[in-house]
UniProtKB/TrEMBL annotation:
Protein name: Uridine phosphorylase 1-like
GO cellular component: cytosol
Pfam families associated with the record: PNP_UDP_1
Domain Nucleoside phosphorylase, first and last residues per copy: 6-109
Ranges of compositional bias, category Polar residues: 137-147
Length: 147
């Protein structure tokens, strides 16, 4: 209850791309209308789909083939009934990407019988190679996902 996010259990639909496969109207090619898109979104919602993405299928297939139990945990960036564009800031997206990690870490702790209410560290306790750490930070900060 103290988390800044909510958790919903449902089906994730894995598609072959970000645009046509997910019913977006703003891709390079689009052969359907807004009404078609809304009908598609309603149909998959009625089937229990609450999220779409493109990477989980390979992960799930590999785990299944190896006999490893797995799950997919995603952050939903927007409500597709309200539009197709991801307009959240880089800072917000960075914050959101930490939520599944917190959730999975808590689940693992609970499964192992460890206390789950121990606060997470915000930063590593030690930096083993300061020069490499600085280089990685500079490379990371140079990536602009807003453009």
């Amino acid at each position: 209850p103290d988390d800044p996010f909510s958790v919903h259990v449902g089906k994730t639909m894995c598609t072959y791309d970000f645009y046509e496969g997910q019913g977006r109207l703003d891709g390079a090619f689009c052969e359907y209308t807004e009404a078609d898109k809304l009908s598609f979104l309603k149909r998959i919602h009625d089937a229990g789909v609450i999220n779409m993405e493109m990477e989980s299928l390979c992960f799930a297939a590999l785990c299944h083939h190896a006999g490893i139990r797995s799950a997919v945990v995603c952050v939903t960036l927007l409500n597709r009934l309200n539009g197709d564009q991801v307009s959240s800031s880089k800072a917000t997206l960075n914050t959101w990407q930490e939520y599944p990690q917190r959730l999975v870490a808590r689940y693992i702790k609970k499964s192992l019988g460890l206390p789950v209410d121990v606060p997470q560290r915000k930063h590593p306790q030690t930096v083993r190679n300061p020069a490499q750490h600085k280089m990685m930070r500079q490379q990371s900060e140079s990536i602009d996902i807003d453009s």
